[in-house]
Fold this sequence. Notes:
The protein is α+β, with helices and mostly antiparallel strands and about 300 residues long.
Amino acid sequence: MTLPLHNIQTIRLLPTNVPVLRPTPSSLYIRPLADRDFHELHNTLCRGFGVNMSSESLALRLRQNGYRPEISYGAFEEGSMVGFWLSGIRAISGKRVSCCTGTTVVEEWRKRGIATAMSRSAEGAARALGAGAGVLFAQAGNSTVIRLYRNMGFEITRTLHSYSSADTVELSKDNPMQARLTDLGHAYSLRHMLDHEPPWYRMWEGIFDVRDSIMPVVVSDGMKERAYGLFQPATGRILHLGLDAMSAEEGRLALGAMVEIFMNARSNDGPIELFQIPDSQTQIPAIMGSLGFSLSNTQVEMAKTL
Length: 306
């Protein structure tokens, strides 16, 4: 089936019924992805984002983000991938929600409606699996991308900040708070200490999917457990930091004890990152600031009804 690019947006695509996109004079088309596309996906990600990510790191992120190839789409030109739209589905508050966990189009193929075409295809496939809403993330300073997503029907729901450590972190030598490794199940039992709903990349479902890559830590004051944290050495990211009610100084000591373990466990000598903290959360960023962490990235979460 041959379709001009401007008409592809009107078609509800299902994973088993995919029209071919062929804007004249190229041989460009879109289709659902499959496991066999991983190598092409890896190459296109590195090319589209200008990064050098290992295939192992990509595989880890896909598992953590709930990647579903049957509702993810790629754009191909003469058999080579030139763009992708990756999706997953999870239940959030009793409703099935689809998330775009990554998208790009290589530079020479941008501004041709390819991202919009892939998004419409992915949304149709997600609806067929019962998803009633979609969510994605964008860099807060990228007005062009945010405008594109607004044109697709997405609206900003919250702002998320990430913070990076300095090369060295000043820690208290006489710290009454004691941090120790634990298992993920025990850390999950302390989830009430996290005072916000984790965004997609930090949801418990994804964390359990990559449990072998997660280092759970709890902090005790000698009488009771006061905090928990989840660190991913391979990415250098702190995915969760939950605190019991405590003073700012107690918080600094508790998080300092955890950060010491995280710094020693990182895969390289680079900084570690406290990842995607909502701007409504002010206590933990302030404490991490006293430990030498500083704002490194700001993203917006955007959502729409499918």
